[in-house]
Amino acid sequence: MMFKKTVAQIKKFVYSVYISFLFLNIKMEAICREFSKYIVGGFGVIPALAWNDFIKDIFSKIVPKNWNNTLTGKLTYALLITLICLLVIKVIEKCLNVIKTSVEKICS
Fold first, then answer.
1. Does this model's pTM top 0.90?
2. Among the four 21, 48, 51, 81, which has the fewest Cβ within 10 Å?
3. How confident is the model over 9-26, as pLDDT tens digits?
4. CB-based contact 59:80 (threshold 8 Å)
């Protein structure tokens, strides 16, 4: 009995939100597109955290143990990560440029 009441309340809420979107001339397709961007972005954080742990473990094996928790150690780690990210971004940009050039040659 309570479950049916809850489902009815959810349906009523969703319907009222939908009517509000119609009233404000906002298309549900645009809202779903935006939500999907946020969801995909959220899933992108998970591998980033896994890579972060992996790189931290490698970093802790390379540097002395007492240096890991110091300000200098954290700064060095942050700079290393920044460098790695910049290199990866540059490689991806070059790959995309090669692909773009190839597609333009094929299409022209």
1. no
2. 48
3. 888 887 777 777 666 766
4. yes
